[in-house]
Amino acid sequence: MMPTMRPVVIAANWKMNTTPSDAAELARTIAGRTRVAGVTRVICPPFVCLASVRDALVADDPQVAVGAQDVHHELAGAYTGDTSAPMLDGLATWVIIGHSERRRDHGETDERIGRKLGRAVDGGLRPILCVGEQLADRDAGRAFEVVERQLGGALDGHDAARVAAARLVIAYEPVWAIGTGRNALGSDAAAMAEAIRATLGRLGWERAGEVPILYGGSVTAANIGEFLAEPSIDGALVGGASLKPDEMAGIVGRAGITAAARLSAIS
Ligand code: PEP
Fold first, then answer.
1. Domain of residue 28, residue span
2. Alpha carbon of 26 to those of 203, 223, 234: distances in Å?
3. Given this model, what pLDDT does residue 1 score?
4. Active site (catalytic) residues
5. Number of domains comprising the chain
């Protein structure tokens, strides 16, 4: 593969952890320990912590972006407990869409995830679209087919150029690797990243090679190197380890090595 200048992205998914009173301090600590040139850092706290994390980072390290963990597929209405794209205005600039925990716990379908993607793009949010197969799919040799279907379901009907302009990021997260301590092989994740770009090409994306693809699934400071050694992988969506400043320092530090190598490969 040719050297690429796709950005190196490390996104923290705090899931349903932290409170408004402790999230700001954690964000500040992580920001302070991850100031590494060339790495795009994103912290996605729970909705109720977005304001405190935003305020902490604006004051301390405005280069760390704030992301939401979900967005509703409608703009407003009778959707108790949900959050729409306009509500995120000023609070978040990124959003995770289609995380497997939302597919599992909230019955999110590819069609609904596609509508959320549209709302994110319309609302000026940078989407991280999550895809990934179940263990049974991988064991049955259906991993590529499942991910291709998820991508098609979410992206079909959208103007590829418009979604590309929103700087879509895709996170490949095999479901069996999330929160289990069991991670994919770097080579398997890389093969999937290449398949994802091929699928984007079939869906009409002219510049599929420019879409950053992250790996997610039990990423730690100890194993991030295996994924970032793969030229087709551009970073990680990190769950459990993203709540630990030492882990984040190690993960982002390793990402900085990849960012520097990519820069020197093109200069
Ligand atoms: C995630 O939440 O997207 C994730 C990959 O979690 P973990 O790193 O804990 O497996």
1. 8-266
2. 40, 23, 25
3. 47
4. 99, 173
5. 1
In a domain, 3, yes or no: no
What are 156's two structure tokens?
Answer: 């079909």
The protein residue whose alpha carbon is closest to atom 8 in ligand 1 is 239
**Of all atoms in ligand 1, which is nearest to the CA of residue 219?**
8
CB 238 less than 6 A from any atom of ligand 1 = yes
Side-chain half-sphere CA neighbours of 189 within 13 A: 34
Cβ atoms of 23 and 45 closer than 8 Å: yes
pLDDT in tens, 202-238: 999 999 999 999 999 999 999 999 999 999 999 999 9
User: At 207, which CATH number?
Assistant: 3.20.20.70
Indicate the pTM of the whole model: 0.96
Q: Is 13 in the pocket of ligand 1 (CB under 6 A)?
A: yes
Cβ of 97 closer than 6 Å to ligand 1, yes or no, is no
Structure token pair of residue 79: 């959707």
Q: Give the model's pLDDT for residue 4.
A: 60
* Ligand 1 mean position, distance from CA 230 (Å): 19
Question: d(Cα 242, Cα 247) in Å, to the nearest integer?
Answer: 7
Does the Cβ of 98 fall within 6 Å of ligand 1? no
Low-confidence ranges of the chain (pLDDT < 50): 1, 3
Burial 130-167 (b: 16+ CB within 10 A, else e): bbbbbeebbeeeebbebbbebbebbbeebebeebbebe
Q: How far apart are CA 99 and CA 128, in angstroms?
A: 9
Q: How far is the CA of 265 from the centre of ligand 1 (A)?
A: 30
